[in-house]
Amino acid sequence: MRIKKSLISGLLFGLVIGLIASFSLNVFALKSNKQSLPLMQLKKFSEVYARIKRDYVEEVDDKKLITDAISGMLTGLDPHSAYLDEQAFNELREGTSGEFGGLGIEVGMEDGFIKVIAPIDDTPAKKAGIKSGDLIVRLNEKSVKGMSLNDAVKIMRGKPGEPIDLLISREGTPKPFKITIVRAVIKVKSVKQRILEKDFGYLRISSFQSKTSDGVISAINKLEVENKNPLKGLVLDLRDNPGGVLNGAVSVSDIFLKEGKIVFTEGRVADAKIEYNATPDDLLNGASLVVLVNQGSASASEIVAGALQDHKRALILGTKTFGKGSVQTVLPLDEKTGLKLTTARYFTPSGHSIQAKGIVPDIVVEDLEIKKRGDDKGESAIKALSEADLSGHISNPESEDSSKADDKKELDKSDKKDIKSLVEKDYQLYEALNVLKSMNLVKAMNKTK
Predict the structure, then answer these.
(1) What would you report as the CA-atom Rg of the chain, rounded to the nearest whole angstrom?
(2) Are residues 231 and 270 in the same domain?
(3) Are 46 and 12 in contact (CB under 8 A)?
(4) Do 202 and 194 touch, CB atoms closer than 8 A?
């Protein structure tokens, strides 16, 4: 029996040594013969493998054991490294192209639970009320504790049209609550735009894809056509933008910068050390720029915010970003599988590491909900009185053309309505617009000096 056990162990040990040696040489192209394999640890691995094959309560497939071992090896490194089986490899390709099936959330791992980095705009998750920072405790009736991130993502993706129950734990909420989401084919339109008021535009990027910069250029051109003049200022909204393709972030940053570093990466191998620089021309021609960020702004969003902040090209407004400053490289193992491996860290132009620190806004503005007085009691708000509201008030002696006065009154009424709506719906955006107008005013005053 000992001879048989030793023979099995020896054969498995040789097999594992061969597989790992081949993996190391072919995938990572080791350049030095001085790098030796940890033979004692591999011997222990082969012993565990043999024990499972012989003593486990059920027979286990060899492929499953090896695949799970590889998965465990990668997920033990950090929350973002992972083994990509055929399904995950295909889904990764679909995700970067802008169309895939699922719920519409970017997730990571925290304390054994699935943490929402950000919900994606116009997706089932966003519409159902999922928020950045939520912890997913259960998927249907299955606890996620101990589940790998890949396995959780597989469950969430499912078939379009099928519902899934998520048990959510949210900070500030006394106990977990259930949200039911119907899966759908996620078509991400990463760029949206609108005029906030004359001369001031709003541009929203929900994720960074390979062609996001083209969308940004098109959006700015549309804003200027609608405005009938070049913009005096722009709010760039990166809130709840979980990131995406690095080149997309670099290209978007380059749209607003004329020169200098955008971002650089550093890792252990030479290929991981890359520097990205801006090319001439700023599409806004120096017009004022405010960038909105929050806890859901991660990775590529932080690259853009960091670059524009360091070059003093924009003021960053909102709350501190997520802090995902690591680079994941997809390394194909064959045509169907691969690795997503953390290979470097991101640094802003000034050398600030984003990792686990994030981007601190120049102006911190919390996401507040502004209500009219009495709203929470179901009462109508009482309008504050002015002289003009008093019966029989004395008229203003300054005369002006009645038609112009009527037009101005209507315009003022419309502007006030829009501003009132904005402050109630999106307080951070309201403040961003105020800052943008102040920046433009300062520029105008400096020109007259």
Answers:
(1) 28
(2) yes
(3) yes
(4) yes
Q: Please, where are the H alpha helices in 172-245?
A: 212-227
Cα–chain center distance at 95: 13
163: pLDDT strictly greater than 60: yes
pLDDT digits (tens, 9 = 90+) for 262-290: 999 999 999 899 999 999 999 999 999 99
Which SS3 state, helix, strand or coil, does residue 140 take? coil
> Among 334, 364, 394, which residue terminates a domain?
364
Per-residue pLDDT tens for 390-427? 444 445 444 444 444 444 444 344 455 566 678 888 99
The label of the residue with tokens 């709506």 reads: 421
Is residue 178 classed as helix, strand or coil in its secondary structure? strand
CA distance 289 to 435: 9
Residue 391 covered by a domain: no
Phi, psi dihedrals of residue 168, rounded to the nearest 5°: -110, 135
Six-digit token string for 187: 């078509």
Query: Do 319 and 366 contact (CB within 8 A), yes or no?
Result: yes
**Tokens standing for residue 18:** 């061969």
- Residues of the domain holding 119: 84-97+99-187
pLDDT score, position 37: 82
Total of domains in the chain: 3
Average model confidence (pLDDT) across the chain: 83
Supply the pTM of this predicted model.
Answer: 0.77
* Per-residue pLDDT at 5: 43
Q: Going by DSSP bridges, is the β-strand pair 99-102/363-364 parallel, antiparallel, or unpaired?
A: unpaired
229 plus 348 within the same structural domain: yes
- Does any domain span residue 426? no
**Residue 420: what pLDDT?**
63
Residues classed as catalytic:
299, 310, 324
The least confident of 96-100, 214-218, 266-270, 331-335 is: 96-100
Q: Does residue 384 belong to any structural domain of this protein? A: no
**Which helix or strand (DSSP H or E) is residue 293 part of?**
strand 288-293
Indicate the residue among 146, 168, 187 that finishes a domain.
187
